[in-house]
Design goal:
The chain has a nine-stranded mixed sheet with strand order 3-2-4-7-1-8-11-10-9. It is of the alpha+beta class. The protein folds into three domains: 321 residues, Peroxisomal Thiolase, Chain A, domain 1; 75 residues, no CATH class; 71 residues, OB fold (Dihydrolipoamide Acetyltransferase, E2P), CATH 2.40.50. It is globular. 31% of the residues lie in helices and 22% in strands.
Length: 498
């Protein structure tokens, strides 16, 4: 093995902006510059920015720039031959790291910067106050990696249009798959999330460094109102944050040439990425993802490790269902003593749009420098259990390095059987997954149901405004429940009732 081409991370930077006034609020471009300069300083050789071959920016939600990578490069005084502006998806930073590591190994680049930032808290504050931010004028991005819409027309028509509405569908399906009662499940969610808050409370970059008890997290109150069953507010990722992070990757040879001390090096052992069938309606089930399973499995195989040999994890954690699905893939339970978050997770450390994984990787690098013999797994997830990525890192070099080739796994994804979809459903239906959407007044407003008709086709449907039935869906298990589905021509939606 050519050790000189091994891909390593040599610099990481994280920033948090809590401005006293909106006039002082930093825009995402400035936060990225701060994070990138911090990452360069972290290498011990700030001049590394002049050596960039590639500069890649994670898609920014809170503010749009015509050419974010080019503008960042100009601010940094860098002249990379390659730039990229990513598409949308929480798997993005880890996927970019995996691809950059492979390019470094093949000799296609030597030094790469990956950066991202969000200033959603400042943006939303300005919108609520009717104020104009003194930032770079907004403009349409000139080039973007991927612009596909995440849901089909039928899913959109029935309200499956936001993460807060979709991930609870998966959560309820996971609960039924694990044969847990609603009460057992809520206790489990409380324990899972409370452990995450303990980590966030110790994270200097966390947006909410607050330790919460399981009871606080599961108990519905005016401050912790139910969003979509079974998730009260404290279980939801919070995007109104001002955070930035950057990573500098290079080859071992480049690090030696630059004189970067070896104690700064963290080796990339594996990087995998895969997209499931694009629309939820096409997938076999709602209690997991074959793409997620394959991404985790392949990362371990490429690294030559078993799940038991990984010392720490940061599972993508926009909602508890994402964490639990990953743990189920690896055969882990809540009594496993190994950490399943290093930052505290998106609901507590913060959910900076698509860039969370940059923070989890940066945190892992800092941890592995202190404990170089250990190994960490980082995972990412994009859209609605749609896009997945995973990476394995250590302070020690891998026994071997193999870039990931997704083609065989893509064929397996494509070969998954997709149930026929009934756009106009009529008859008896059995519930596969569901959630109840709540209003700010604490009352249920609508139900979203996915199920199968007796003859086999899948349907999407809504419940409402039957308050009695909506409350019943929160108090009794509805997965596997039979009901009646009919098509409402005026709205174009299917309606579910008992």
């Amino acid at each position: 093995m050519d050790q000189a081409r091994l891909p390593i991370i040599v610099g990481v930077g994280q920033v948090v902006d809590r401005p006293a006034t909106l006039q002082e609020a930093k825009e995402p471009l400035e936060l990225m510059e701060m994070a990138a300069r911090a990452a360069a300083a972290d290498t011990g050789r700030p001049q590394i920015l002049a050596r960039l071959d590639s500069l890649q920016v994670v898609n920014i939600i809170s503010w749009a720039y015509e050419d974010a990578p080019g503008m960042l490069a100009q601010r940094l005084g860098a002249t990379p031959g390659h730039t990229l502006y990513s598409g949308i998806g929480g798997e993005t930073p880890q996927r970019l790291v995996g691809k950059a590591a492979a390019a470094i190994w093949r000799g296609e680049m030597d030094v790469c910067l990956i950066a991202g930032a969000e200033a959603m808290d400042s943006f939303m504050s300005a919108r609520r106050q009717g104020k104009t931010l003194p930032w770079t004028p907004r403009s349409t991005p000139r080039q973007i990696e991927d612009t596909r819409v995440p849901t089909n027309e039928i899913e959109q028509r029935h309200g499956a249009t936001l993460p807060i509405r979709v991930y609870p569908l998966y959560e309820n399906a996971i609960r039924a798959r694990m044969s847990l009662s609603l009460e057992e499940h809520q206790r489990r969610l409380g324990l899972l999330c409370a452990r995450m808050t303990e980590v966030a409370a110790q994270n200097p970059y966390a947006w909410f460094p607050i330790r919460r008890t399981p009871e606080e997290i599961v108990t519905v109150t005016p401050q912790n109102r139910m969003i979509c069953f079974p998730y009260p507010k404290y279980m939801n990722a919070i995007m109104e944050v001002n955070q930035g992070a950057a990573l500098i990757l290079c080859s071992v040879d480049a690090a030696r040439q630059l004189g970067i001390p070896q104690e700064r090096w963290v080796y990339i052992w594996a990087g995998t990425y895969l997209t499931d069938k694009w629309f939820m309606s096409e997938r076999p089930s709602f209690h997991g993802s074959l793409a997620q399973e394959l991404v985790l499995q392949r990362a371990l195989e490429l690294a030559g490790l078993s799940p038991e040999e990984v010392d720490m994890f940061d599972f993508y954690s926009c909602f508890p269902s994402a964490v639990q699905a990953a743990m189920l893939c690896l055969g882990m339970d809540l009594d496993d003593p190994r950490p399943y978050t290093l930052t505290g997770g998106l609901p507590y450390a913060g959910g900076p749009g698509n860039n969370y994984c940059s923070h989890s990787i940066a945190t892992a690098v800092e941890r592995l420098r202190r404990e170089p013999e250990k190994k960490a797994m980082i995972t990412g997830m994009g859209w609605y259990f749609t896009k997945h990525s995973a990476g394995i890192y250590s302070g020690r070099p891998p026994r071997t390095f193999h870039p990931y080739d997704p083609r065989e796994d893509e064929a397996r994804i494509a070969a998954q059987p997709s149930p026929p979809l009934a756009e106009e459903a009529q008859g008896t239906g059995i519930v596969e997954a569901y959630t109840v959407v709540f209003g700010r007044d604490g009352e249920p407003e609508e139900g979203i149901v996915v199920g199968r008709l007796e003859e086999g086709p899948r349907f999407w449907a809504n419940v409402g405004p039957d308050r009695e039935l909506l409350w019943l869906m929160c108090r009794e298990e509805f997965i596997g429940r039979k009901g009646h589905v009919r098509h409402h021509k005026e709205s174009g939606r299917n309606l579910f009732s008992l």
